[in-house]
Design brief:
By secondary structure, the chain is α+β, with helices and mostly antiparallel strands. The protein is built from 10 helices and 13 strands. The structure holds adenosine-5'-diphosphate (ADP).
């Protein structure tokens, strides 16, 4: 075959690697290219089976499929075995006078091998199989050119086979992850449901008792009520993320004033900020900051950001809450000059249960849910939330909320989901 045609054929096979959806078909095309380019009668691939410690035919021409596909070839006493063990190519001009030829396969396939060329298939330098071509046309001799061609095709076949194995593994892992995620969601749903009832009873009775008993027990009962309420918040956080993921969460949307929400949230954290010695400030633009939203959910999102900003800012620090209008959106930022977040952790802060410091060593409470809840609440409205931070300098958490409400099915068309 003339040089140009050979090159075109090789190029075609190499290109096919990128679009090889079906590995079997791709290997078939490699085998026919090998047959053509080396002027052989047949070509085949043997893969090494690490458990059985032998080679097996995994790709053969269609007319041998019935007889030798899957057939085993021992490492000892076969040309393919020799190539595999030595990691070197082989050319046998006349198999009838070479003891390395394994005759059993010819018997099975009713084929008569006269000459052969075989090369090892390597992945990262380790042999994974053998690629061979048999019976050079016109009783010719295989040359170093044939070896080079076969080596090239063997590499492509090895990559395709390896990719197929890896893709299958990834698919398997994905299925496992989906199943684990389902089990985790089920666990969270059941646990939070089961905890809610007794907790409601504890809160109810404690509140009742507080009314009934004298002031001397107020402190103890307040502690019970405060901690039970905290537990309730945690359970609500767990189930709100989960409900959203299942699409079970409902929005009660109406026109709400963002300025009002910011004022309310700032007021509710004033006491915490004072105790910590952190100055809390707001800058609300004079524009009309009305959004179509579920005010309670936006307040939860903003509260979680403000709570974090105060928590992760040392005494003497500052927290600024800004609300302003941008085209089509209301933009709210919570800016602090606290401890900041390492760049490597920044992409993960919105993940559920993620905390920069390990749960065991950190000084602050929390379960790593606040930001994931905030993200859920904002994205439910077709909005977007993100964080910028410099470690040791401070953090800036910002969210955008569309001025007009977007129906859930339209969310995919929002500018953030391109
Ligand atoms: P948690 O309730 O445990 O604080 P969050 O989801 O609210 O969980 O936050 C996750 C983690 O992100 C926090 O534990 C903290 O390490 C980091 N983080 C969040 N906000 C800030 C902030 N303003 N400054 C520094 N770190 C922050």
């Amino acid at each position: 075959m003339e040089y140009k045609k050979r090159f075109a054929r090789l190029l075609e096979i190499t290109r096919g690697l990128g679009s090889a959806g079906d590995v079997e078909k791709y290997l078939e095309s490699i085998l026919s290219a090998a047959t053509e380019l080396t002027n052989s009668e047949v070509a085949s691939i043997l893969e090494y089976d690490d458990t059985a410690k032998e080679l097996r035919f995994t790709a053969v021409p269609w007319f041998h499929r019935e007889t030798i596909l899957g057939a085993k070839v021992p490492l000892d006493g076969s040309a393919a075995g020799w190539v595999f063990v030595q990691g070197k190519p082989i050319i046998i001009g006349d198999v009838s006078s070479d003891v390395r030829h394994y005759r059993q396969i010819d018997r099975l396939s009713k084929f008569k091998t006269s000459s052969l060329v075989a090369v090892p298939m390597l992945v990262h330098g380790s042999p994974v199989g053998v690629f061979e071509a048999l019976n050079k046309a016109d009783n010719g001799y295989y040359t170093e050119d044939d070896v080079a061609l076969l080596e090239m095709l063997a590499s492509l076949a090895a990559i395709a086979m390896r990719t197929d194995v890896l893709e299958r593994r990834v698919q398997g892992s994905n299925n496992e992850i989906t199943e684990l995620d389902r089990l985790k969601s089920e666990f969270i749903a059941i646990t939070s449901h089961e905890l809610r009832t007794p907790l409601g009873l504890i809160l109810g009775h404690a509140t009742f008792l507080r009314e009934m008993v004298g002031k001397e027990y107020y402190e103890q009962l307040d502690a019970i009520i405060r901690n039970a309420s905290r537990l309730k918040e945690i359970i609500e956080s767990l189930s709100s993320v989960d409900n959203y993921q299942k699409g079970a969460s409902r929005l009660r949307q109406r026109k709400v004033s963002m300025a009002r929400i910011v004022e309310d949230v700032v007021a509710s954290f004033q006491e915490m900020a004072n105790q910590k010695g952190v100055k809390i400030r707001m800058e609300v633009s004079k524009d009309d900051l009305f959004v179509d939203a579920d005010g309670a959910k936006i307040a939860i999102a903003l509260s979680n950001l403000v709570k974090n900003a105060i928590t992760f800012t040392d005494q003497g620090g500052q927290v600024l809450i800004k609300a302003e209008l941008t085209p089509g959106y209301v933009k709210v930022s919570v800016i602090d000059n606290g401890v900041g977040i390492p760049t490597s952790d920044l992409p993960r802060v919105f993940e559920r249960f993620f905390q920069v410091e390990s749960h065991l060593t950190r000084r602050h409470g929390g379960m790593g849910l606040g930001l994931s809840v905030a993200k859920v609440m904002i994205e439910m409205h077709g909005g977007r939330i993100w964080a910028e931070s410099v470690e040791g300098k401070g953090s800036n958490f910002t969210f955008l909320l569309p001025l007009e409400s977007e129906p859930a099915e339209k969310q995919a068309e929002s500018p953030f989901y391109s």
